[in-house]
Amino acid sequence: MEEQTDRIEVIDRMIKGLESNIAVLLEERRKLTGTDVVEQDTDKWRNVSYRIQEEGFEYCFKHYSDFPEIVDGEFHQLREKVVLNMQEMRDFVRIRIAETNMGL
């Protein structure tokens, strides 16, 4: 049981790291493209950031919304990858739990 708790804590830390990295990456991308974002678009991005903080990273992207108001193909590709990777991680942990339980 302790091993499962440890793995869950590792997953939670990874998710927290992703949350902070997304904001940094979005800002870096904006700087690299040199595109000034109009206030309406800024509000849309702030909403995404707010939802990540309020709903939690996984729930935000997997259940809360697919954010159709964001017109950015790269964002949606990354969002889809994140959702798939979260599921892969959950499946991986479940398999490891099953494997370790079989050895008991």
Alpha plus pi helix count: 4
**How many separate structural domains?**
1
Order of helices and strands: HHHH
Q: Which stretches of 5+ consecutive residues score pLDDT under 50?
A: none
Q: Structural class per helix/strand content?
A: mainly alpha
- End-to-end span in angstroms? 12 Å
Helical fraction equals: over 70%
Largest sheet: none
Q: Average pLDDT value?
A: 83
The total strand number stands at: 0
Global shape: elongated
Computed CA radius of gyration, to the nearest angstrom: 17 Å
Portion in strands: under 5%
Question: What is the compact description of this entry?
Answer:
This protein is mainly alpha-helical and 104 residues long. The protein is built from four helices and no strands. The protein is elongated and about 55 Å long.
